[in-house]
Every structure is written in C-alpha cells, then in structure tokens.
Specification:
The protein is an alpha+beta fold. It is about 25% helix and about 40% strand. The longest helix has 17 residues.
C-alpha cells in the first residue's frame, strides 16, 4: 500500500509540476524582470558643480535556487548581478549636466538579492546585499525608485 501511495504521489508530482520546477521558474521570471529594469539617472548639484549619475541597468545576471530546512519558506532564490555606475564631469549649469553623455568615471558594483519562496508559492525579498571589490557581502539600503530592489509588480 505504501508503495502505491508513493508511486501515486510521484506521478501526481510529474503531472502537476514539482515545487523544485516551480521555484526555478520563479527564479527565471525574476531574472527576466531584472533584465527589463531601466537605469536610474539623477542630476544633482554638489560642491564642485552639477553632475549626472547613472545606476544600472543590472548586468551579468546569474541565479541559483536553494532548498532550505524551513517548512514555511522551503526555497531560497539567490540572484547576483552587477550595477554599472557612471558619473559625468562637474558642470556649471544643470542643463549642461543633463545633456552630458560622456561619463568621466565608471564603476561596477556587485549586488545580490535573496528571495524566499513560500510553501504556498508566495515570494518575498529576504536580503538586499552589495559587495565591495575583495570584500564580503553586506546589507544595503533599498532604493524606492529602482526596480531591482523590489518584487515585480503583478499586472
């Protein structure tokens, strides 16, 4: 009897899809959403003048789906990527900075987003991390106006 129940549950899992496959599909959808993110452009005045700074869009995206020991949150999705950052030279006027297309400085920051997938398929952001070159992962502040720091909006 136990063998029949075990085989039935395996067959049912193959027909309806497995939680592992569902978590992987969720990870792929998250990566696809991050690939669609637009850059964040800010023109601001500093002591030396006006500059235009651009963050993103995310590049070099990679993901992993991990099984956890939690019953409530059985899967963790880890997405790592880089955020390119460019800044222009200081300008005397805001209009000059807004129209500047030649970055004076370009850096790349390593980012990682950790998500938890619930036993009911719900998804939540667990950690937003960044890493300095040669350093360890550290928690970072979520920016309200960039899509890579938030769950995708449901349509």
């Amino acid at each position: 009897m136990k063998t029949i129940l075990l085989m039935a549950s395996v067959i049912a899992g193959q027909i309806t899809g497995s939680p592992d496959a569902d978590a992987k599909a969720t990870a792929q959808a998250l990566v696809w959403g991050l690939e669609k993110c637009e850059a964040r452009v800010v023109v601001a005045k500093f002591k030396c003048g006006w500059t235009k700074n651009t963050w993103g869009p995310p590049a070099n995206l990679d993901y992993d789906v991990l099984k956890t020991n939690s019953i409530k949150w059985p899967y963790q999705i880890v997405i790592s990527y880089t955020i390119p950052w460019t800044g222009t030279k200081d300008r005397k006027r805001r209009e000059e900075a807004e129209q500047d297309t030649k970055p004076a400085l370009t850096l790349r920051f390593s980012y990682r987003n950790d998500y938890q997938v619930g036993d009911d398929g719900t998804l939540r952001v667990a950690d937003l991390l960044s890493q300095a070159p040669g350093g360890s992962w550290k928690e970072r502040t979520s920016l309200p106006d960039v899509c890579w720091d938030h769950l995708p909006r449901s349509e």
